[in-house]
């Protein structure tokens, strides 16, 4: 077996499959594109679902990749085990309806065992297979695998919901008896016993059925297009080929661990307690890659995952004695390890470090808040006479404040309290079950559509013409091909079309189809790409249509032109965002509609009003400068050399279209655009908002819609001017400011009068002092306008020794407000109000010295006042 670095393993994998006719697919962004079922790209196949379900036919049915992936449903196990990771790389080879079982197994065995490639010893490899899959068993035997190295496993069948499924065969490497201290041997595999001897390095899924949960597996129908989907973990390959005890002792992690040693002054011991080193090394990789791909820490979704990873790593840093910000210092090491295949980490180093350091600093303050919350919980336990911290409270500390249970346990035990471990585990299990359910829910693929996938007739989109004559080549009705159609809805494919199919955020063209007499025979309501790339026109049929006949295709030019204005304005907006708030503000989605444009981008905070103003001004400057918008077709390498910016989520072939707007914007884009920026006329931002952790959205309008937006604001301003009696609009702001100042002055006077009135009223109230045993108390109904006035009474009461306890009740509107204040050590205000509030059909609580409650039964106020003496 060859001794290879992780970079060499990855490259050899890709080179081998390339030699077998596979196209090398680049690693996709960790943030899924147009796939709401996934929180993260979690496997090599996740980015290829469109090929497997048949919605898109790839140029080459043979694909290989090295795909960065994130899985976070078992975060707690990272660091505890030898092979759990959050961010990992999945090596894969895929066949979309091309080769199948025989080639996949034969080539896989060649890659593993050939001296030209990985050169694994054959006697160290074991394979599991689905018992009913005799074909896989026979193919392994034909490759030279001994029968006792083939293990039938009932679970070797891959399916997640409806869609592609099939048996799988897994490949294991035997690391020897040193990793099998009880000498259990092959039973470890046969009985699926967790072990460190037989390491799964590769899984080959033979996707040949359409899974249907409504029928038994034996009745699944064969897929029209059988596929191969494989996955091999780079981290596991590296551990085996580098002779490492765990994945963490490989060149993918050890440089990070060495840096942590320097920062902590502690030494990593592979045989000792090294969990904290492993957690930090794993989590900073995930953080660096995810932030580099546009995800940012936050309170929900992906952002919450990143925040949780960072906080867990920081707490493990503290366990190693690192009490200052440190994670951001490890970003450069991650980048250096991965530079050969992922140069973007070092390219975005400054931004990633900034976000990580900022989040670390925020968490330092959060730790203080968490410590304060724990102190409160322990104080409540002491007051209640309890000795155990409940599991739900431990979980809240863990989940909300990022406190590891070990830290909570340490602090609680130092204070003399026990820990409810079972309650914590139950709360943790509930969260894990929810996470796993979400993963399962989002893992399935769509069903293949054999009819659409079978369209092979060519169709060309004409960018230049808005009307042209073309031959109708395909008609589909009710998911079946037809020779003619005379009513209803149909899908049509033409040899050539001027209709733009929805793509790249630009909506589809609408328009009409006319016969040779000029009569409209169909209305086009949508255009989408067929699996093989043809424009698939959705039409409302008005008269007879037949295959092989020529028709005139005419788009709605007015609609197209309005969409083009918005699309071109999106390019200007993207460039302006980079100039004003930074290069990290990359596109995370867009929509170019008829009446507006929507642009989503990565950013870690709200865009300020001043920044929005600068962005808007910059875009309009480019419009007023009347810059030519030019489009050229070239190869991808030339486009990159021109500095062309690729749009988020788009897939580009060898030949691409580059849209340039002077030297202001250069982007790869397949959409349609105006000829000159002056055609946009006017650009206005109407809204900026957050749509998720680290993702912002701008809604904007152009041309006529922008004018109308300004007119609407002007009308509103004129209405305000009339209300405040300002003769000129330009004086409105001064007039409003003057009125606001006048209002503040009147409010201040009003407050002062209220205080004087309250003080006067308090003088009468405080005279009525009663006694209950040794406690002096005042219990009175008062007439006030709001609950705040009750607090003013209490503040005045505190200034002098009127009584030991004060109880005030006020009927405000339909509600009853109750206040209890206490200076007596024998009377707890919070406990007293819990007894009194139910009398007026209310509830409340508070501290020993002050408590408030709300109720709804004003008729019971006298009863409440009478009950005060009974409860003192």
Kindly describe this structure.
- Helices cover 38% and strands 25% of the residues.
- With 872 residues, the protein is an alpha+beta fold.
- The protein has 5 domains: 6-226 and 233-254, Bira Bifunctional Protein, Domain 2 (BirA Bifunctional Protein, domain 2, 2-Layer Sandwich); 386-439, no CATH class; 458-555, Elongation Factor Tu (Ef-tu), domain 3; 560-708, Threonyl-trna Synthetase, Chain A, domain 2 (Threonyl-tRNA Synthetase, Chain A, domain 2), CATH 3.30.980; 762-870, Diaminopimelate Epimerase, Chain A, domain 1 (Roll), CATH 3.10.310.
- Strands 1, 2, 3, 4, 5, 6, 7, 8 and 9 form a 9-stranded mixed sheet that branches.
């Amino acid at each position: 077996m060859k001794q290879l670095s992780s970079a060499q393993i990855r490259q050899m994998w890709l080179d081998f499959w390339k030699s077998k006719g596979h196209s090398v697919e680049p690693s996709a962004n960790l943030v899924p594109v147009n796939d709401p079922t996934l929180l993260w790209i979690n496997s090599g196949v996740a980015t290829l679902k469109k090929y497997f379900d048949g919605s898109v036919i790839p140029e080459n049915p043979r694909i290989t990749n090295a795909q960065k992936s994130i899985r976070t449903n078992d975060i707690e196990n990272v660091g505890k085990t030898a092979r759990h990771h959050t961010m990992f790389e999945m090596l894969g080879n895929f066949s979309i309806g091309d080769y199948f079982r025989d080639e996949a197994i034969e080539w896989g065995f060649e890659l593993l065992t050939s001296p030209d490639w990985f050169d694994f010893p054959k006697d160290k490899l074991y394979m599991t297979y689905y018992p009913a899959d005799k074909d896989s068993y026979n193919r392994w035997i034909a490759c030279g695998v001994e029968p006792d190295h083939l293990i039938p496993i009932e679970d070797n069948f891959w399916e997640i919901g409806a869609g592609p499924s099939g048996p799988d065969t897994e490949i294991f490497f035997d690391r020897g008896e040193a990793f099998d201290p009880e000498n259990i041997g092959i039973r470890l595999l046969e009985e699926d016993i967790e072990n460190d001897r037989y390491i799964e390095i590769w899984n080959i899924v033979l996707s040949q059925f359409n899974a249907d949960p409504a029928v038994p597996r034996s009745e699944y129908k064969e897929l029209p297009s059988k596929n191969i989907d494989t996955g091999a973990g780079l981290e596991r390959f590296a551990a085996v080929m580098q002779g490492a005890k765990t994945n963490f002792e490989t060149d993918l992690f050890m440089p990070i661990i060495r840096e942590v040693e320097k920062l902590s002054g502690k030494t990593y011991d592979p045989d000792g307690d090294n969990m904290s080193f492993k957690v930090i090394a794993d989590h900073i990789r995930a953080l660096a890659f995810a932030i580099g791909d546009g995800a940012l820490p936050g309170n929900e979704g992906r952002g919450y995952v990143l925040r949780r990873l960072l906080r867990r790593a920081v707490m493990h840093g503290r366990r190693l004695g690192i009490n200052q910000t440190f994670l951001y210092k490890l970003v450069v090491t991650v980048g250096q390890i991965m530079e050969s295949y992922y140069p973007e980490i070092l390219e975005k180093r400054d931004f990633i470090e900034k976000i990580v350091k900022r989040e670390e600093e925020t968490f330092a303050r959060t730790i203080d808040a968490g410590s304060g919350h724990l102190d409160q919980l322990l104080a409540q336990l002491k007051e209640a006479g309890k000795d155990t911290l409940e599991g739900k409270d431990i979980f809240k500390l863990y989940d909300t404040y990022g406190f590891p249970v070990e830290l909570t346990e340490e602090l609680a035990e130092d204070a003399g309290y026990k820990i409810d471990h079972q309650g914590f585990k139950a709360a943790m299990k509930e969260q894990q079950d929810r996470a796993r359910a979400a993963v399962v829910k989002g893992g399935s693929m769509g069903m293949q559509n054999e009819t659409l996938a079978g369209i092979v007739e060519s169709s060309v989109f004409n960018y230049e013409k808005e009307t042209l004559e073309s031959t109708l080549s395909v008609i589909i009705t009710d998911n079946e091909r037809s020779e003619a159609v005379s009513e209803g809805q149909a899908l049509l494919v033409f040899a050539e079309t001027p209709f733009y199919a929805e793509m790249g955020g630009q909506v589809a063209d609408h328009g009409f189809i006319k016969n040779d007499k000029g009569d409209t025979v169909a209305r086009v309501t949508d255009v989408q790409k067929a699996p093989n790339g043809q424009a698939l026109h959705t039409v409302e049929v008005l008269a007879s249509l037949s295959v092989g006949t020529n028709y005139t295709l005419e788009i709605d030019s007015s609609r197209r032109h309005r969409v083009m204005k918005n699309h071109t304005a999106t390019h200007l907006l993207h460039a302006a965002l980079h100039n004003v708030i930074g290069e990290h503000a990359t596109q995370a989605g867009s929509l170019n509609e008829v009446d507006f444009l929507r642009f989503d981008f990565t950013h870690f905070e709200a865009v300020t009003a001043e920044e929005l103003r600068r962005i808007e001004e910059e875009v309009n400057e480019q419009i007023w400068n009347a810059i030519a918008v030019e489009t050229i077709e070239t190869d991808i390498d030339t486009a990159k050399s021109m500095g062309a910016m690729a749009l988020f989520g788009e897939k580009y072939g060898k030949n691409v279209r580059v849209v340039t707007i002077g030297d202001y914007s250069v982007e790869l884009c397949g959409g349609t655009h105006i000829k000159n920026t002056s055609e946009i006329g006017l650009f206005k931002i109407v809204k900026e908002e957050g749509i998720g952790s680290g993702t912002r959205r701008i809604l904007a309008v152009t041309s006529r819609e922008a004018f109308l937006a300004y007119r609407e604001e002007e009308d509103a301003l004129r209405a305000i001017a009339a209300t405040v009696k300002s003769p000129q609009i330009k004086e409105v702001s001064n007039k409003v400011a003057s009125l606001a100042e006048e209002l503040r002055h009147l409010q201040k006077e009003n407050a002062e009068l209220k205080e004087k009135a309250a003080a006067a009223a308090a003088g009468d109230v405080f005279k009525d002092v009663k006694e209950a045993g040794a406690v002096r108390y005042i219990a009175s109904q008062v007439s006030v306008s709001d609950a705040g006035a009750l607090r003013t009474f209490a503040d005045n009461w505190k200034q002098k020794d009127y009584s030991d306890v004060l109880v005030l009740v006020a009927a405000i509107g339909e509600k009853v407000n109750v206040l209890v204040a206490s200076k007596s050590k024998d009377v707890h205000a919070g406990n007293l109000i819990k007894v009194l509030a139910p009398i007026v059909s209310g509830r409340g609580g508070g501290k020993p010295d002050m408590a408030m409650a709300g109720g709804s039964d004003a008729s019971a106020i006298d009863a409440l006042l009478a009950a005060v003496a009974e409860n003192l």
